[in-house]
Protein: Polyphosphate kinase
Organism: Arenibacter palladensis
Amino acid sequence: MIKSKNQYINREISWLSFNERVLQESADKNVPLIERLRFLGIFSNNLDEFFKVRYATVKRIVEAGRTGKSVLGGETAKDLLEEITEIVIKQQTKSLKILSDIEKELETQNIFLINEKKITESQCAFIKNYFIEKVSPVLMTIILNDLAGFPMLKDTAAYLAVKLILKKQPDSKSNFKEKRYALIEIPKGIDRFVVLPKEGDKNYIIILDDLIRYCLGSIFNMFDYESISAHMIKITRDAELDMDNDLSKSFIEKISSSVEHRKISDPVRFVYDKSIGKDTLDFLKDKMDIEDTDSVIPGGRYHNRRDYMGFPSLGRNDLMYDKISPLPIKGISLEGSLFERIAEKDFLQYTPYQTFSYIIKFLREAALDPKVRNIKITVYRLADNSQVAASLINAVKNGKHVTVQIELQARFDEQANIEYAEQLQAEGVKLIFGVRGLKVHSKICLVEREEGAHIKRYGFISTGNFNESTARIYTDYTLFTAHDGVLKELNKVFDFFETTYKINKYKHLIVSPHYTKNVFKKLIDREIQNAKAGKEAYIKIKMNSFTSYKMVDKLYEASRAGVKIQLIIRGICCLVPGVKGMSENIEAISIVDKFLEHPRVFIFGNDGNSKVYISSADWMTRNLDYRVEVGVPIYDADVKQELLDTFDISWRDNVKARMFSERHDNAYRKNNNPKVRSQFATYDYYLNKLNS
């Protein structure tokens, strides 16, 4: 293997580069104006999660006294923390400029975001009444000066740090003016954007923070002050779950305890309004024991800009993306029996271009069908009011045996999954709580139906969660099949959840942690052999993230052998494409657009008889070695062609595709080909299939 300082891109830096692509969407004037604000919210939300998880992990390496070079691609953890902070400060500065530009453009559309200094007399009465009725009763205000310790700030909650300079008392001989400091927590149960009464054609919005600033006098009326000011701060806490080893506790109890402990875990980032007074900032940093390993970010006037994801539409559909109507799957009706049609041939569902309703219909049919005996399914993330969960409970009430493997450690969904687990268990669903040392990330379902003297199996395998809410914005493939060989092996996966010491063998499925890496390496080796033999050899892959250095090295080996490789990686990509002598036969792009690209698709040329797979697994160490993942080969010719066609549409994108390169500049792909915006073209592809 050729060793080069450009051999890998550090995963944290690559992730920040991905978030830069999200920020690009907020700056793109071809994106509808309100959608641009929402992309700013996504950028901010992503950054919060990055600090909770990735920055916190690197910080732990530093605090353990280790360099971390072996896992960080050669860079020391301490240097990486500094580099991350530097990049984030630049991105935050850019995001503030973009926000300012968007606000100016909103004004041309008669939408005005006003602050507390721009409130008119006609708006004053509405705001004061709104504050008294809705804000004041839920406001948490803490005077800091006389407290023995600093209050525990909530993770990523936003606070106004208030400074009051009290008037000098007449009988005081000192020239010193007493200062009082306070914290006001911005309440989460109230919309961050308060829509004010419309005036003619003009819409006015005030951010809740500014509405509170306007009413500071009402909050602190017991103090005789000469000046008052308020600036935003927030902290981000380490989100790693530290598991309790108490053997007397159940797994649910341990997860619940860990989730609760997360609320008081160590802070890793402190963000403050850069216009805050030095005395106030010093007071806060001293009281909060901000450490050198914490990322201290000077920001703008408003934090928690993730709330922009919920910016009010104001009825302005012209400033948002057109809503698409999810399409039916050609040849399979939601009104008839899905089992009858799946018994005849495999079908592919591609959300959100096609409706998620096929999964719900499949489960509801299984719940009611008198011949169905068993339903087995994995759950990673469910919708708030999940029709999937309702269908499974319905099945139990109809006498079916229902087994649910629910992953209680799904990051940031732990509490929701605990609640679903308790609900399902109370209804009689058999629950399996994962495999010790592994997360179960596979997306699989198996139904066993009594047909004559035999058991017939039906099932589906997906690249994404069984979540009707995210299915409207995440692109994911789901294969519906009655292939007996595939489904017998799917049953082996469920057996493994309960009998973890038994390692099964698979002819069809690609299963982590035991086989995925080696199977894909063998498929790559076959392409290498074909290339060396002068045969056509290619690999086409679409994933969310690509961080496994071992798999990166394997693709470098294939590239040097002459295998043509096309990669579509939405997020992190540690591979460096286009480097002579290392990766010159590899091209890699990222597509960030209206929907979040989420499928995992793997295509190998195989000397003219292409092999195609979909999977729940990215090529990340965690997916290959520390999770239960399931990939499935595509045997149906029509489904295989769909996957080849939709990959090709994505690959031809020259509107929303950015190129990975040594420069890490997120340059848009430009060429002289006809314009292809792949997400729009994919919808048209399925629309044309229906009409053909």
About this structure: Residues 241-248 have pLDDT under 50 and may be disordered.
